[in-house]
Amino acid sequence: MFLLRAGLAASLASTALAIVNQTSCNGRTYVYEELAGYGTVPSNARDEFGDTLNFGSALALDRSQWKKLSNGSYTGVLWGLPDRGWNTQGTLNFQPRVHKFDILFTPSPEATVENPSAKNLFFTYKETIRFYGPDGTPCTGLDGDATGHLSYPGFPDLPVSTYEGDGFGGPGPGGKRIPVDSEGIVLNDDGSFWISDEYGPYVYRFDASGRMITAIRPPNAIIPMRNGTESFSADSPAYYEGDNPEVIIPSDGPSGRNNNHGFEGLTVSGDGKNLYVLLQAATNQEGGLESQTERYTRLLKYDITIPSKPRYAREFVVPLPLYVDPTAKPSKNPKVAAQSELFHIQNGQFFVLARDGGFGHGQDESLSNYRQIDIFDINSATDIKGNTYDCANCSVASVKGVLKPGITPATYCPFIDMNLNSQLNRFGAHNGGDQDANLLNEKWESIGIVPVDGLIGDDDEWFVFSLSDNDFITQDGYMNGGAFPYSDESGFNLDNQALVFKIKLPDHSRPFDRD
Ligand SMILES: *[C@@H]1O[C@H](CO)[C@@H](O)[C@H](O)[C@H]1NC(C)=O
Ligand SMILES: *[C@@H]1O[C@H](CO)[C@@H](O)[C@H](O)[C@H]1NC(C)=O
Ligand SMILES: *[C@@H]1O[C@H](CO)[C@@H](O)[C@H](O)[C@H]1NC(C)=O
Ligand SMILES: *[C@@H]1O[C@H](CO)[C@@H](O)[C@H](O)[C@H]1NC(C)=O
């Protein structure tokens, strides 16, 4: 009896020792058990249209396709959302799209720092769906115009991008397209997708063939303004404008989403009835103009019970985490870790991917100081929806980023540190150190979860997938259906990287329950 108990205690102790970390958020305990997987897709991979393949702005895992095989491997279907096309030297007339992959994942729990596992997550490219406006005109990755919009019956005013030639610097008739800088994805049962964007920032629904069928325009407080009118340009000049781009005045508008700080986070509740969308960081009137003050960002909830008629339902403030940037002066610290992805768990709790910028493969500095999948809880947060905070230039915080009295923000709880070399090294990957292919990329921007049991996650054990956005950086790149070759002037080839974390959700979590 005594021996049995001692044995049990020893095995419990070793289980407890084996975890990487755990956190308790509003009484619910989450455990980061281990890094379970690592995989890559080459930087020069191309899609069925001949364009360089990038997949990391967001991901969606098809729940119905996730299977555990009898030999211990898993197979599934992953949709990866590329960014707005190669854009490190100017935006291009790249048609926004989503890629479908078959995935094969074989956990390697025996991997150690001394005996690392080879890559154990593999992607097989299947197909691509490109996005079109309501009238069938392709959407574009080009910047929005400084003024003006497009109108379609049944849609709110949409941002417009007016371009010359073919939009890549070659001849052509020019035209007007809806600019979409895709950053978040929700996959629906009918094959349609909700896609969140940074230009509007808007949320769009595209049908299974890629045609836009619904658009959500956020409250006026979030709409970017210049000179007192809406102005959707992110001041991201087109590549073809070369050294004399159109000058946008002012570059940063005084209110609304900051340039390239749009709707990075998009997720749906397990019952499919509520869509949540999270701004990357504060709006400009609320501290969004400085990395030290952009802390208080907005989470919007839309009831999508009738998908063609989304209903704005609630709004909350999420306080982003702070970190110290060792390359910045003390007076420029601490900085805010802006967020790149959102995932709804259950009971008012969400995963959020918050990180620093400018550190990693292809950057001047290789060591990232904050790259985490954290948790926030909105159960005690103030619902701020309404004219007091939603009207144009209305604010939940001062321009210096001080939260207004009377607003309780979400509760924020740190969780998975993606940067731990004690885990990354088990798969040959690393944070900091040499600029080699296994140095983590700068931008991690996606979250998807699937059950370890391959069924419904009855034991609360889940795999969390995350992908990086490599900004299409390669020396062997193609845009415009293969007609526009490029080599990024950085000289780097950044593979598309993926990580898988094994976690335990709070007891009896059912993130995909439909009741
Ligand atoms: C398990 O089977 C699948 C399908 O045949 C195969 O692709 C995979 O490599 C196998 N896994 C292992 C660990 O042998
Ligand atoms: C805003 O006003 C300035 C000064 O009149 C002008 O130069 C600029 O083009 C205007 N910007 C927009 C977006 O209209
Ligand atoms: C918007 O709000 C900010 C901060 O309260 C203020 O400084 C600015 O003057 C306002 N702008 C307009 C156009 O009302
Ligand atoms: C575990 O989490 C705590 C709280 O966030 C943090 O201070 C600590 O550094 C973490 N440890 C590891 C190994 O991630």
Describe the structure.
This protein starts with a helix and ends in an 11-residue tail after the last strand. The strands form nine sheets. Strands 1, 2, 26, 27, 28 and 31 form a six-stranded antiparallel sheet that branches. Strands 3, 4, 5, 6 and 7 form a five-stranded antiparallel sheet that branches. The chain has a four-stranded antiparallel sheet with strand order 10-11-12-13, with no helix packed on it. Helix content is 5%, strand content 34%. With 515 residues, the chain is mainly β. The chain is globular and about 60 Å long. Bound molecules: 2-acetamido-2-deoxy-beta-D-glucopyranose (4 copies). Keywords: Signal. It comes from Cadophora malorum.
The SS-based structural class is mainly beta
Q: Count all strands and give the number.
A: 31
The first-to-last residue Cα distance is 44 Å
Bound molecules: 2-acetamido-2-deoxy-beta-D-glucopyranose
Count of helical stretches: 3
Radius of gyration: 22 Å
Helix percent band: under 10%
Low-confidence stretches: 1-16
The percentage of residues in β strands lies in 25-35%
Rough outline = globular
The average pLDDT score comes to 96
Largest sheet: 6 strands, antiparallel
Signal peptide: 1-18
Domain Phytase-like: 128-386
Organism: Cadophora malorum
Protein name: Phytase-like domain-containing protein
